[in-house]
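Example 3.2
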Amino acid sequence: MQATRETVLTRIDQRAQHRPTYRLSVRRALLDWGAQRLFGLAAVAIGGLVFVIAATLLVRTVPLLHVYPLSDLLTGQVWQPMRGLFGFAPFIVGSIAVTGVAMALAVIPAILCGIYLAEYVNRRTRTLLKPVLDLLVGIPSVVYGLWGILVIVPLVRDHLGPWSDRTLGRLLPFFSQTNPSGYGLLAAGIVLAVMVFPLIVAVTEEVIRSVPDEMRQTLLALGATRWESTKCIVRHAGLPGILAAIVLGFSRAFGETLAVMMTVGNVARIPGSLFDAAYPLPALIANNYGEMMSVPLYESALMGAALLLLAVVVCFNAGAQFAVERLVRRRNA
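Structure, written as tokens:
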């Protein structure tokens, strides 16, 4: 009986000792469950925000779609709201053209610069250059726009335009200087290229530096040169991240408003030359929203322009994500 009593007392003491630990584990489990639900709710809210924005724009665009077929709106080339003509074709082409010029000027130099910062620059030089890139990313777009008006537009008007008209313009009409003002696709494209350049450089540099150093050392030990090692890293380990950097640059360029609006000329006409003025979708919305709202369907047309802008960016990002995933699967196969 005495032994049984001592055994019972020992078990009670052991349970009393483990009770705080049990309470602590329950508390940690509850905190983990709550944090998981909270983070999941935040992720769903962020993802659902895109659908909420799209639904809101679509509801405001419906009155216009009841009057005009979507095909007529997308292919129409005349924008005269006072007469009820809402052709989006010049604005769609203008957005694509300005973004295309900017990406053509920025992508390859930015990728090469990112590779150089990641693979060839010493730590001291990289420490000096990184804050400059971060500063360029954070400069307000209105500052870029003013710089474009003061520097890029005169450069295009007085030097690049006449030179292109005398040389390439004689063979290809796309390079002829049809607009002597300097405001046009090339000026806006150069300003936009400068804006997206540091973003692509920063992402590319981070992607290349995230590759394990053992991969570099292995390639060098096998007799590869520095450039051969870098090329192998970019092709096999860094290509998906570089494509993601290009997608980010495209999204930034396609949705840019103020700097492009200040340098592109804002003429609702499909450009036929690199020096023609254009009118991108963001500039259309920024210039006209809040004015002449008494015109029937005018606000609905501007909401339709915003919906088009959102749809192009979403489709491009989805297509790029699909291409990156397919590339990764093919590489791992």
